[in-house]
TrEMBL record:
<feature type="short sequence motif" description="Histidine triad motif">
    <location>
        <begin position="98"/>
        <end position="102"/>
    </location>
</feature>
<dbReference type="GO" id="GO:0016787">
    <property type="term" value="F:hydrolase activity"/>
</dbReference>
<dbReference type="InterPro" id="IPR001310">
    <property type="entry name" value="Histidine_triad_HIT"/>
</dbReference>
<dbReference type="InterPro" id="IPR036265">
    <property type="entry name" value="HIT-like_sf"/>
</dbReference>
<feature type="domain" description="HIT">
    <location>
        <begin position="5"/>
        <end position="114"/>
    </location>
</feature>
<dbReference type="Pfam" id="PF11969">
    <property type="entry name" value="DcpS_C"/>
</dbReference>
<keyword id="KW-0378">Hydrolase</keyword>
<dbReference type="InterPro" id="IPR011146">
    <property type="entry name" value="HIT-like"/>
</dbReference>
<feature type="active site" description="Tele-AMP-histidine intermediate">
    <location>
        <position position="100"/>
    </location>
</feature>
<protein>
    <submittedName>
        <fullName>Purine nucleoside phosphoramidase</fullName>
        <ecNumber>3.9.1.-</ecNumber>
    </submittedName>
</protein>
<dbReference type="InterPro" id="IPR019808">
    <property type="entry name" value="Histidine_triad_CS"/>
</dbReference>
Length: 114
């Protein structure tokens, strides 16, 4: 997708602070962190959101969670805990229409939404 920010990061057209990359996914620090540790795990395939998952493309979700399992250990938040967030659509607060998982940790995260 030509205008997609995350596709541009994947292609290296926009710089990012990369934590991990393989042939299927990339993980990088969020530009506007909401916690001491806040990174995003993003499939290289442009899938808009959970709404666009299907039999053909959904194996990537298991792979993303395996990558998260590895990265939280490397970032030393596996034991203290962390939150994985996926925002979908307008009411979910999705601002980049390329599916991604936020991983936040390094402090006790508030639970209330308002
Ligand atoms: P969403 O609101 O769609 O769930 O999350 C999008 C996230 O992408 C936001 O937390 C935002 O800070 C982050 N973001 C947007 N543009 C960029 C960028 O160019 N670089 C990085 N590293 N993060 C970005
Ligand atoms: Zn994209």
């Amino acid at each position: 997708m030509d205008e997609c920010i995350f596709c541009k990061i994947i292609k290296g057209e926009i710089p990012s602070k990369k934590l991990y990359e393989d042939d299927k996914v990339i993980a990088f620090h969020d530009i506007n962190p909401e916690a001491p540790i806040h990174f995003l795990v993003v499939p290289k395939e442009h899938i808009e959101s959970v709404n666009a998952l299907n039999e053909e493309n959904s194996d990537i979700i298991a792979h993303i969670f395996k990558v998260i399992n590895k990265l939280v250990k490397e970032e030393k938040i596996a034991d203290s805990g962390y939150r994985i967030i996926n925002n979908c659509g307008r009411d979910g607060g999705q601002t980049v229409n390329h599916i991604h998982f936020h991983v936040l940790g390094g402090k006790t995260l508030p639970m209330k939404l308002t």
